What we know:
Strand 6 and strand 7 (about 210-215) form a beta hairpin. The chain has one domain: Rossmann fold (3-Layer(aba) Sandwich). The protein is about 45% helix and about 25% strand. The model has no long low-confidence stretch (mean pLDDT about 95). The protein has helices at about 5, 15-20, 25-35, 50-60, 75-80, 115-130, 145-160, 165-180, 185-195; strands spanning about 40-45, 65-70, 85-90, 100-105, 130-140, 200-205, 210-215. The protein is of the alpha/beta class.
Amino acid sequence: xxxxxxxxxxxxxxxxxxxxxxxxxxxxxxxxxxxxxxxxxxxxxxxxxxxxxxxxxxxxxxxxxxxxxxxxxxxxxxxxxxxxxxxxxxxxxxxxxxxxxxxxxxxxxxxxxxxxxxxxxxxxxxxxxxxxxxxxxxxxxxxxxxxxxxxxxxxxxxxxxxxxxxxxxxxxxxxxxxxxxxxxxxxxxxxxxxxxxxxxxxxxxxxxxxxxxxxxx
Length: 217
């Protein structure tokens, strides 16, 4: 499924519309981009989309080369325009070989991994690809485990959506995404990363969203 189809929008609208869908989007990408080690030489972006996160990483690590992996050939064209010189791979990131690198980053991509075992395996593959001391930086929806807290977090997400859409539209988006995406609770996500031998920190957290960094031991 293309990113535009997944979100129910035209690809040309993506960069503008994503901000109406995701609260704190700019802030999260800024935090994630600034967390990349400045001396990184190769950064792999899983589900690179239009390249927004990778572009921010290059502000911190300007000498880095970017490898972007995405299954959507059309969105890769947009990433290529934003990131001339990047190596772009059209593939599902779960199937692609991750090259040896200094950092692996992902923004609203890993929620497409549907089972704990598959995500645990992905984190192990990332750890194998990273050089010692390398980083995994993940921006995503990682709600609370407590049901009533998670409910409040999704109510806050709905309130954000209703700044641009009707209540019916907002509820429709959340319902559709809940069928297509899997949001593991934050504590589960941390356990999966730690299980792949990452030392993990929560760099940023608000409502259901978080920016996590794991360093390969």
